[in-house]
From TrEMBL:
Domain Peptidase M3A/M3B catalytic: 244-701
GO BP terms: peptide metabolic process; proteolysis
Name of the protein described by the UniProt record: oligopeptidase A
Family named by the database record: Belongs to the peptidase M3 family.
Organism: Prochlorococcus marinus XMU1408
Length: 703
């Protein structure tokens, strides 16, 4: 008799069979999964209840492996659904995701609010049933998570809390869908050469391809081409950024800019009310749990002690950045006037990218767009993998032909120690697909390291997702230097997930790492893009095989701090806005979230946002992602990553023996220890001291 295989979405372990997971299967089987997990939870409750009654002493083995198994089966199955919803979005999948999400939220809350589990975890902590510091940290995190999920609430309050949680999950998904749809729905057809003057060939090819895909025709009924048009500009970043950077036609730049900054702020896809409801519900939940506001909840599990500590760091950086930003704005205005603008010309937001590029070329004779042929994806990967071999003693090999993939663009790689022992794997989904794939770049976990028994270790597997320029015709994906940095950034997250040696999955990789420390490993990798050996290995012309000229590399290095005052202020503006929305805004304040943001802009920007600028309506990080009252984490962690890279600088980047030693130390601390220790302990293990802002201010050219 042959056994019936479970549905692909219920497999709950190993690599997902993406080709077998359909909306119908999800609809049919997620309820079955919830039913099965409920039964497992009831069984665990019963076992723990009896043991507590009989002995009142529990060990780790009595509770945590079984509890993890329940949570992991849920994370695995729903993780696959959420992943596909982000990278292969369709109306069918979106509807299924939306329909099943309340069931997932409901069960997650039920798990987090389980009195028997809470008593069991409290018993572990109080009765000394834990063996080591890692177990203690995991249990403390579990207890605070349960508290923040409403474990201590009375029944009526708990019911209200749970309905709010379901509503928040639904609102976040709607917010994200609105941003995706409004980005996808807006485009502008350009038919005259004067409208695309200044755009480099590759950008014109991208716009012509978009026109062709939209069914547009050139005069005479021919397909659009880069040279003849028509061209269709859009709001997805591979089309938007080159247009704003190179298009000489100022009125069209303005039109495209206004469309971009007003995304999801009007009509049926308007996120304004959704933002207010999300902030209101978060505040209400925070007060239910005994906090003053959502900001307090967020910081309860962060490295930063409190809001004042975050504001102190941001203010330190703001004071360093503001004078530089003011000078940079004057330099951009002078550059515009030097190059033909009137004497009474006022710089507008849609001018910044354009004149910054002109000034960059003047100052450094650097044309970043012309450098794309030197950064073909495979060459960049080759240099990145060689860097990882030098620093961390690992080999990376492609294995795409042996696993199921969700799209033809996706690739799969194995990570091995130098002795050939496989330690991890990752998927890479590099290219933009505006109609079906969420914008931005991210790392997520497919499988987490888990040592079940001595000879039974589940190896970590990461998702690495980018939205870079796809291949066109016979050309490979030719990357901008920014796209190179993004790939290195996400790979840093991946390394922390994949090179962990923690055997408890609850603290392996990025799990249990405080949110404001989790960007350390990613931002650290960005520092290596222009290190001498790495740049010589990633920057090789895809056709001629010529290395990028040393003069161009020097320009890239010099330009790293170009307009860093404006760039730093931008991040501070986002971070402070996020913080204040979650600590100060409420319905009784008498102003909208946008008006609060504009008040903050008075001290964090040098060019006030225009009336149509409804940036918050597309601020997915905090309204559809995990960064609520945590966007400051980028800057907080940048302090850590700059200071970490400074350790290599101090040893001398050309000193390969020393670099290898420090690389091993970094692997054995930051990349290995994950969430098994506090970030301060991990950093001290690597650096020998606590972090300082000095390296970041120096690297940013703000000293």
């Amino acid at each position: 008799m042959t056994s019936i295989k479970p549905a692909a979405i219920l497999k709950g372990e190993g690599l997902p069979d993406y080709d077998k997971i359909t909306p119908e299967e999800i609809t049919e089987n997620i309820p079955k999964l919830i039913k099965d997990l409920n039964e497992k939870l009831n069984k665990l409750e019963e076992q723990l209840g009896k043991k507590l009654l009989k002995e009142n002493f529990l060990r780790w083995e009595d509770v945590m492996p079984q509890l993890y198994e329940i949570g992991e089966k849920l994370r695995w199955s729903w993780g696959v659904v959420s992943h596909l919803n982000a990278v292969c979005n369709s109306s069918e999948l979106r509807e299924v995701h939306s329909n099943q999400q309340p069931k997932i939220v409901r069960f997650s809350n039920q798990l987090a609010q389980n009195e028997v589990i809470f008593k069991a975890l409290s018993n572990l902590k109080e009765q000394g049933g834990l063996k080591n510091e890692t177990q203690i940290r995991i249990i403390e995190t579990e207890l605070i998570t349960m508290k923040n999920k409403g474990i201590g609430l009375e029944l009526e309050e708990k019911t209200l809390f749970n309905s709010r949680s379901e509503r928040l999950a639904k609102l976040s998904t709607t917010f994200s869908n609105n941003v995706l749809d409004t980005t996808k729905n807006w485009s502008l057809l350009l038919k005259n050469n004067s409208e695309v003057e200044g755009l480099p060939d590759r950008a014109l090819e991208t716009l012509a391809l978009a026109a062709k895909e939209a069914g547009d025709k050139a005069e005479g009924g021919n397909d659009p081409t880069a040279s003849t048009g028509p061209w269709r500009v859009g709001l997805d970043l591979p089309r938007y950024i080159p247009f704003q950077t190179y298009a000489k036609n100022r009125p069209i730049r303005e039109k495209v800019y206004r469309a971009f900054v007003s995304r999801a702020s009007h009509g049926e896809l308007n996120n304004k009310k959704i933002i207010e409801e999300i902030l209101d519900l978060r505040n209400k939940q925070a007060r239910q749990l005994g906090y003053k506001n959502w900001c307090e909840i967020s910081l309860a599990t962060k490295m930063a002690d409190n809001e004042e500590a975050v504001e102190k760091l941001l203010e330190e950086l703001r004071l360093a950045a503001m004078p530089h930003a003011k000078k940079e704005l004057i330099q951009l205005t002078e550059c515009a006037k030097r190059n033909g603008e009137d004497d009474d010309f006022d710089l507008s937001p849609w001018d910044i990218s354009f004149w910054a590029e002109v000034l960059r070329k003047e100052k450094y004779e650097l044309d970043q767009e012309k450098l794309r042929p030197w950064f073909p994806l495979d060459q960049v990967l080759n240099g990145l993998f060689n860097l990882c071999k030098r620093l961390f003693e690992i080999e990376i090999e492609e294995a795409s032909d042996i696993v199921p993939l969700w799209h033809k663009d996706v690739r799969f790689f194995d990570v091995k120690n130098l002795d050939g022992q496989k330690i991890a794997s990752f998927y890479l989904d590099p290219f933009s697909r505006p109609a079906t794939k969420r914008g931005g770049a991210w790392m997520d976990e497919c499988l987490c390291r888990n040592q079940k028994e001595k000879d039974n270790i589940i190896l970590p597997v990461a998702y690495l997702v980018c939205n870079q320029t796809p291949p066109i015709a016979d050309e490979p994906s030719l990357m901008s230097f920014e796209e190179v940095e993004t790939l290195f950034h996400e790979f840093g997250h991946g390394l922390q997930h994949m090179l962990t040696t923690v055997d408890y999955p609850q603290a392996a990789g990025i799990n249990n790492v405080e949110w404001d420390a989790v960007e350390l490993a990613s931002q650290f990798m960005e520092n290596w893009c222009l290190e001498e050996q790495t740049i010589s290995e990633i920057a090789i012309h895809w056709k001629t095989k010529e290395p990028l000229a040393e003069s161009e590399i020097t320009k890239l290095r010099q330009s790293r701090t170009f307009n860093s005052g404006l760039a730093t202020l931008r991040q501070i503006h986002f971070a402070l806005t996020d913080l204040k929305l979650h600590s100060q805004w409420n319905e009784d304040l008498g102003i909208s979230p946008d008006e609060l943001r504009r008040q903050i802009a008075k001290k964090t920007t040098v060019l006030a946002p225009i009336p149509e600028d409804q940036f918050l309506c597309a601020f997915s990080h905090i309204f559809a992602g995990g960064y609520a009252a945590g966007y400051y984490s980028y800057k907080w962690a940048e302090v850590l990553s700059s200071d970490a890279f400074a350790a290599f600088e101090e040893a001398g980047l050309a000193n390969q023996d020393e670099i290898r030693k420090i690389g091993k130390k970094y692997r054995d601390s930051v990349l290995s220890l994950g969430g098994s220790r506090s970030p301060n302990q991990v950093f001290k293990k690597f650096r020998g001291r606590l972090p300082s802002t000095k390296a970041l201010i120096r690297h940013s050219g703000l000293d």
